[in-house]
Amino acid sequence: MKRLIATAAVLAFSAGMGWAEETVRLGTEGAYPPWNFINDAGEIDGFERELGDELCERADLDCEWVTNDWDSIIPNLVSGNYDVIIAGMSITGERDEVIDFTQNYTPPDPSSYLALSKDVNLDEAVVAAQANTIQANFIAEKGWTLVEYATPEETIAAVRNGEADAVLADHSFLAPIADEEGDLVLLDRQERIGGGVGLGVRESDEELKKTLDAAIQSMKDDGSLNELIKKWDVATTF
Amino acid sequence: MFEFCTDPETLDSARWLACYLTTGKHANFYISFGTVLLLLAITAPTALAFGFGGAMAARSRVWPVSWLGKAYIALVRGVPDIAFFLFFVIALDQAFEWVRHQVLCPDWDQPIRQGNDFVVCAAAKLPLSSAPQWVHEVYGFFVAVLTFAIVFGAFSANVLFGAMRAVPRAQLETAEAYGMSRRQTFWRILVPQMWVYALPGLSNLWMVLIKATPLLFLLGVEDIVYWARELGGTANPRFTAYPHGDWRTWYFLALLVFYLLFTRVSEIFLERLMRKLTHGQATTGGMAQAKRGGA
After folding, report:
1. What is the reported pTM?
2. Element (H, E) at A191
């Protein structure tokens, strides 16, 4: 009997604490295809949209999507305007000091250079990257000339109109652009930076992190994550 | 939207354009014009009210009030807008939530500040995290209005403060000679006469306010510049049924036309208002008007 009461108490407690009745707000940038973008209907779409919806279903969470500017995406998370960052954000030590990451949902993936011609000498070149990204940090550490832009789109435009000689970004973002536009080519050189992409959560949200970790793990285990990665062509598979 | 839009690739250019311009994404773009106009319509009077309050406080004979008014004007005018919009808004939002937290969850035992995190009880969240997205958007919009009003209120406070001092001393002395109290002099003589001095400065502020709306996206409100950038950016055929190159120039050109038209209409309106306010005033403009027989 005692055990029964204890079990009931645990059940009641966990039901009360359960996330199912609370809405989890997912924050994304909406400007980084194929990871996340706004489709023709004006809705958030892409790899992370499908991934997020699937994770929420598996974790039995009630999820809501929000777009936010990349530059203020971390401050708005820690002040509680949304609960999860799902925006192709690579796991880095620097970010980990401010927020927590779940396990990665894509493996560490190469970053590529996109330029107008193959023979760019990076040591002397002006290289573009989106501000506050692992790529921007990488270029700065290398001591190359870096120009930063607020959105991914602007980094490409900078190369196209000659403001920069090359742009460094995730391979999955640059590849479709190189396919589509004949005058832009990918350099052979690639960089291995970052620890894969994970969901960002507040450091105090230990429980949500565990829930999402478990959901990601279950998608890794049954292979559905790999399928999704292949479908959107965002990275190598696990 | 149109029936023939199911397969855009097969369409001729006129129909393609018709379909392209009526996608859901474009609808968001058109709606954002309304958002911007609504924001201006609410912000302008609110900022003016803030400005009036600030100027009145700065003129006060009670020194803490005057000190407060002057501090408001000086501090807000000195801080760059972008810093204000990035940090102040988050602070403002947190202040609201902190107050609600103290009232609604008195027996909460965890600290509100946990490292970088700001954690209040679920009931104190503003809006509640279970609220539908539109509530969040409306809330964001009003935080934006408030922030704009505070910033532009400080500038207009300075303009009004100057305008109040520009009213000829003789007018006020005459009022006193008629036995009016300080309050009566202020409301009956000073305030009606100061607008003519304030209007050039205020109309400048209005023009700046019109152009400051792209700061909205920093607050999570999707404004016309955000959508123009988003829609004009290169559209890759893998991700859209309407692929195109970098069309941002065209979208920004459309915005240019919008802003120019808007400022032109404002100018015409402000000019008329100026003429009306000048009427019967003891200023050069007012005298000239009277001489022409405008009275």
Report:
1. 0.80
2. strand A185-192
